[in-house]
Amino acid sequence: MYRLSSDDLIYGYINGIFPMADTDNTLYWYSPDPRAIIPIETYHPAKSLRPVLNKKTFEVRINTDFEQVMRACALPRSEHDGTWISEEIIEAYVDLHQMGMAHSVEAYIENELVGGLYGVALGAVFFGESMFYRVPNASKVAFHYLIEILKKQQFELLDTQFINDNVRRFGAIEIPRTEYMKLLKQGLQKKVHFTEHIMEHSFRNQPD
């Protein structure tokens, strides 16, 4: 029986497609047109987030509990919602994480995971997948530090797949799929590292 593999994920991302599971766990591959991206250089934290950053409410960690971040993202947002993150998808991305290609940014309070996000890094492209929060602003702080990492490591493209209100608040825009594929090809040719030259496990959030 076919099972999604880390190799499938890599092949998909470099060709502009990504998997999502249906309600019966059937996998489908998507390549939206238009495609949603978040311009890395033009991102600025919302004014309402600055006091949260200044208070240093959250401890931000990188790659310390990737699987639990995925599982938290997989939980339905409400009793009426489903999830596109199946057990098969979790297993494949955890394998990709163990290969050093999938990463999580996590927000903690007193060692409790209260928010975070995960995605895939290939070349100078970061493919954002999903985020969650259990405490207000936790995912926003995690995203702020994702952008800080991408800027520091000189990433060129942040893919967020579909446009919605959640990503619009971070500055997401839509571009034609043809333009996205050009940016993707360009970004994949550059070699950068998500965690090189940054503290790999944790750091206290600092004001912008």
UniProtKB/TrEMBL annotation:
<dbReference type="InterPro" id="IPR016181">
    <property type="entry name" value="Acyl_CoA_acyltransferase"/>
</dbReference>
<dbReference type="GO" id="GO:0008914">
    <property type="term" value="F:leucyl-tRNA--protein transferase activity"/>
</dbReference>
<dbReference type="InterPro" id="IPR004616">
    <property type="entry name" value="Leu/Phe-tRNA_Trfase"/>
</dbReference>
<dbReference type="Pfam" id="PF03588">
    <property type="entry name" value="Leu_Phe_trans"/>
</dbReference>
<comment type="function">
    <text>Functions in the N-end rule pathway of protein degradation where it conjugates Leu, Phe and, less efficiently, Met from aminoacyl-tRNAs to the N-termini of proteins containing an N-terminal arginine or lysine.</text>
</comment>
<protein>
    <recommendedName>
        <fullName>Leucyl/phenylalanyl-tRNA--protein transferase</fullName>
        <ecNumber>2.3.2.6</ecNumber>
    </recommendedName>
</protein>
<keyword id="KW-0963">Cytoplasm</keyword>
<dbReference type="InterPro" id="IPR042221">
    <property type="entry name" value="Leu/Phe-tRNA_Trfase_N"/>
</dbReference>
<dbReference type="GO" id="GO:0005737">
    <property type="term" value="C:cytoplasm"/>
</dbReference>
<comment type="similarity">
    <text>Belongs to the L/F-transferase family.</text>
</comment>
<dbReference type="InterPro" id="IPR042203">
    <property type="entry name" value="Leu/Phe-tRNA_Trfase_C"/>
</dbReference>
<dbReference type="GO" id="GO:0030163">
    <property type="term" value="P:protein catabolic process"/>
</dbReference>
<keyword id="KW-0808">Transferase</keyword>
<keyword id="KW-0012">Acyltransferase</keyword>
